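Re: the pair you flagged

First of the two:
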Amino acid sequence: MESKFSGKVLSIFLFCLWAPILLSVTLFLATPFVICTVIRWICSNSTIGGKNLKFNGTAMGLFGRWILWFLLSIVTFGIYGFWAIRNVIKWVVENIETVN
């Protein structure tokens, strides 16, 4: 099964430029938006087995979960952070589908 990624370096550079600025200005409240934007871009530039990928997740769909996981991480002095990362990855994968 052949996989391809056609993203451009300039786009990656721009993500690396604006994402930290946006996260800093919003005190990380924009994290779900940044995650969704980056994953949507990755999927729109990727094919697996000749099929395009589509990301259906929304920032609002992730926001409530992200706040809960963030608060749990604070309460547990960062220990829950490992599960939070896993949960974000799981949520992302569950919101990706193939089209064509």
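Second of the two:
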Amino acid sequence: MLTFKNIDPTTREIAFGPHAQHVPYDGVAERILSQGQSFTITLNQTGNFQWHDHVHDDLTGTFTVNK
């Protein structure tokens, strides 16, 4: 499992895939997180994946899932 938690006062809109093309992962295409909120996905697809803050596109990341 992978947990995203917003620890700063800026509301975040976490989305998967490239900025212009959201690609759902574990059934989640995007999720809005206020300060202190979190959500968890189950790492059930193998490969390399991108995520980003849809509103503040300077916040991005990747994760890799191996078998």
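Residues 17 and 23 are 5 Å apart (CA to CA).

-B.
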